[in-house]
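Predict fold of Colanic acid biosynthesis glycosyltransferase WcaL; 407 aa.
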Amino acid sequence: MSRFPHLSETFILREMLEMERLGWDVKLFPLMLQQQAVVHDEAKRWIPQAQAQPFISPHVALSSLQRLAKQPLKTGGIVAKTVAESANSPSELVRKLALIPKAITLAKHMQEQQIAHIHCHYATYPAFAAWIINRLTGIPYSFTVHGHDIFVNRAMLPTKARGASAIIAIAEFHREFLVEKLGEWVRDRIHIVHCGIRPERYQPQPKPAGERFEILTTGSLQDYKGHPFLIQACSFLRDRGVNFRCRIIGGGEDKPMLEQLIAEKQLTGMVELLGPQPETAVRELLATADCYVQASIITPAGKMEGVPVSLMEALACELPVVASRMSGIPELVRPGETGYLVPPANAAALADQLLYVRDNPEEAARYAARGRELVQSDFNLVTCVEQLSETLLAVNPALQRPIQRNA
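Predicted 3D structure, encoded as tokens:
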């Protein structure tokens, strides 16, 4: 993956843990090892094991020179193809060229450790590094696509897709998007494997009756999460005399802007920014909510959600959910069945739907119960990772079926 530990990427952490439980010997190679103030408990033991390399060091320089001397044509070919396919974006090209020595060093360590398969999350730099390692060592690779890595940044995507043993898409929407952008040839390489959660960790909780309508959302404070539209919707609810509180879990670069917007809309005390929270705290907060919202948007650059794991967590808690109709979200939040959808970037429609949920609790509860059933059947981490495991076994004959460990 690009970075580790990364608070919002619980889906990667959970997948690693479940693959390990299935018996796989999992090694962790993040492109960057980062410092975070809040770290999930389950991520802490992985930090000392993470095999990150600096962008430049005597060891990285020596590994690159040795590889160049040993495989001059392949190494030169990697650089030439990278330049040819990324030249239209100078900043992208610079980042890729800076990553090549690191990827060469990772290739050396993976060969020494007899790594049999590389699986990475995101079709951007992780898949680029895997492509380089594959070209130099022959180690097969696969990658999971999520959102911005195909919706926005598609530099060298055809090359990375052709080199991969398998492409994992988290939703049907993603498969059709890739087929549309790359061509029909890619369809057979794509396997649908949902991200998943352990539903038993997100149990429905009885809520004490209260006059205040509790709204909750989880997501990094970035533009594509649509938080300004949720705040605007809250101002509409306030103007209608609704007694509510909206809490936003997450941290990010948009925090100052959102704080200012809350103040401008005179929503202080009604809309709260809770900052980044570990998984245990998120579970506790979900138990206090009446409705979960995912107000995601499509940015001008085309960035958008995939299928937010936070929606799975909310539905597993049997919370009514209101989300934007976009990307793969309708495959989880199904109108008239598991939740409610509204057009993205439409604060008025979002406010109307929130008011409807508040005023129709019995219907909302029925949908939420069906949502939990759907998560249990189609977005269960155990089932999803078993599908991933079987896919990797099918596309890489060198892999041996592991002996499952105890749960």
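The two ends are 25 Å apart (CA to CA).
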